[in-house]
Structure prediction request, 226 residues.
Amino acid sequence: AQSVTQLGSHVSVSEGALVLLRCNYSSSVPPYLFWYVQYPNQGLQLLLKYTTGATLVKGINGFEAEFKKSETSFHLTKPSAHMSDAAEYFCAGSSGNTPLVFGKGTRLSVIA
Amino acid sequence: DTAVSQTPKYLVTQMGNDKSIKCEQNLGHDTMYWYKQDSKKFLKIMFSYNNKELIINETVPNRFSPKSPDKAHLNLHINSLELGDSAVYFCASSQEGYRGEGYTFGSGTRLTVV
Prediction:
């Protein structure tokens, strides 16, 4: 069964610094992997996705993630954090036979 | 136009009441879902409805019953509400079932049981 683990429930970075949010998955089959962002009191917005093909995936708002099968990882990065990036981030995955499973989320704080 | 719309956005009700949350998607997707987000922000699948097949999560109490009158609608009815049902409920949809190109989520319904 597909499971997703996010390392770190809270990450704090300075404005302009690198953002790195970690996600590892476990699956017996090639996974479909996603990152979602949730701003306060709002729904979930898709940032980026990996299904097949290129392992470096670019998303909205300058975010990108790299699928590394050898490390079973799909970490989210952004070169330079903005104050507007402060939100809850969720990694999610599916093996294709079950609904999307979410990690427990990482709250990103950006310090001025 | 809102792709996945849920009503109501907020719902405050007393224990023991019965309530419904409605969800509609105008994306032409073939699969719809209900997720529950608890106070710790954890998102958990409750139900999925794919091509008229309802998949029930075994951990969901039978007080919760999804109803899908057609492919564009998936409503959630909850009987005998309990304090522990307080949460944010998200509806979502996807194309091509579980292998969908990312799920589209509604804005959520914040249910508070008092």
